[in-house]
Design brief:
Blueprint: H1 3-12, E1 18-22, H2 29-44, E2 48-53, E3 71-72, H3 77-86, E4 89-93, H4 105-109, E5 114-119, E6 130-133, H5 140-150, H6 159-172, H7 183-194, H8 199-207, H9 212-223, E7 226-228, E8 233-238, H10 240-245, E9 268-275, E10 280-287, H11 293-300, E11 304-305, E12 309-314, H12 318-329, H13 333-337
Parallel strand pairs: 1-2, 1-4, 2-3, 4-5, 5-6, 8-9
Antiparallel strand pairs: 7-8, 9-10, 10-12, 11-12
């Protein structure tokens, strides 16, 4: 974050503001952890801060301190719109394009607030007056820690903030195993633990909250896995019928795509999940090494993200989409088999 933006933000927050904090649609651990961590900080500083989420999020995140105060735009529409309309400042966290917030997009586009973006994804849009964008960061939660430090307030991080930020860093780094985890990440995490983050308890609440139906759905997904050894690639499919059979709940497929990368020699893993309600296939892409799933998804599946983790979508059926996907791999064979 450059010095000009830091000083502008300090000036902006030097007087009490009405603030709305927005994560992306279908928020994950980093989105919820970062918004709640920032919200606690701003409230402690005397601001009226509210989180408005585009929609619901997984049950395994609903223990995080402050969770009960989050407004769900889909279910609390009028109250959410009122908060957006009266906001003097809007923070957008863990996304960099207003297309990532679904039906909230037109309301934010019409808002008169000063926008502040905090995000670590590639190719940010230019809607924010103050922008903290850094693709090298492990997570938006690590960036919120840095933001508080830039404002000279790292000593004000309390136990609630520490637990929120630790959650997002842990989940977005794959429990600190992804390449985006740096020595600085570990320094931040160490400080959060010193400030009260309950690391073992957080890990247990996130990763040991399975239901029998989720494990059965995982078994179905693994049974559907297709291994393409000639391209060092794996893909998984889940139909709406299969989701319904195993009583799918939001967040149940989180992490399924990563199982493909546990196979020896596999560099590229994808999962295609049918969503009849939205009329699309949701696609998650992961890779190991230099193969950019961000570029692959942007070019072929209207998506994007990071070099090794991205999302996308398709309007076609599972059968047509997977055929198209496999047909693309020949163009990337040299990269995938190097």
């Amino acid at each position: 974050m450059n010095l000009k933006d830091i000083n502008t933000l300090k000036t902006l927050l030097s007087t009490p503001q009405k603030i709305v904090i927005v994560p992306h649609k279908n928020p994950d651990g980093d989105a919820i952890g970062s918004t709640l961590g920032l919200c606690h900080y701003l409230q402690n500083e005397g601001h009226k801060a509210t989180i408005v989420s585009p929609n619901d999020y997984p049950k395994f995140l609903k223990w995080i301190p402050g969770n009960d105060s989050i407004l769900n735009f889909e279910k609390e529409n009028y109250q959410s719109k009122d908060r957006i309309n009266e906001a003097s400042v809007i923070f957008t966290l863990d996304f960099n394009h207003l297309g990532r917030i679904g039906q909230m997009q037109p309301f934010l586009e019409e808002a008169n607030a000063t926008f502040v973006m905090v995000d670590h994804h590639q190719e940010p849009a230019d809607y924010a007056s103050i922008m903290y964008s850094d693709v090298s960061m492990s997570s938006t939660c690590e960036m919120v820690y840095n933001l508080i430090e830039f404002l000279g307030d790292v000593s004000k991080i309390d136990t609630k903030i520490a637990n929120c930020l630790y959650t997002g860093i842990m989940t977005d780094t794959g429990s600190f195993r992804f390449a985006s985890t740096t020595s600085r990440t570990h320094e931040v995490v160490a400080d959060l633990i010193k400030k009260g983050a309950k690391n073992a308890e957080i890990h247990h609440k996130i990763y040991n909250a399975n239901t029998p139906s989720r494990l059965h759905l995982l078994g179905c997904a693994l049974k559907n896995m297709v291994i393409l050894r000639e391209f060092n690639t794996v893909y998984i499919t889940l139909s709406q019928e299969e989701l319904d059979t195993y009583n799918y709940q939001k967040g149940d497929t989180e992490g399924f795509v990563n199982y493909g990368l546990t196979l020896e020699g596999i560099k590229f893993a994808v999962i295609f999940i049918e969503n009849k309600e939205e009329g699309i296939l949701k696609i998650s892409l992961r890779s190991i090494g230099d193969f950019s799933v961000n570029e692959f998804s942007r070019k072929h599946f209207s998506g994007g993200g990071h070099t090794n983790a991205a999302g996308g979508k398709s309007d076609d059926s599972i059968e047509a989409t997977t055929r198209y996907f496999v047909s693309l791999l020949e163009n990337y064979k040299e990269e995938l088999t190097a």
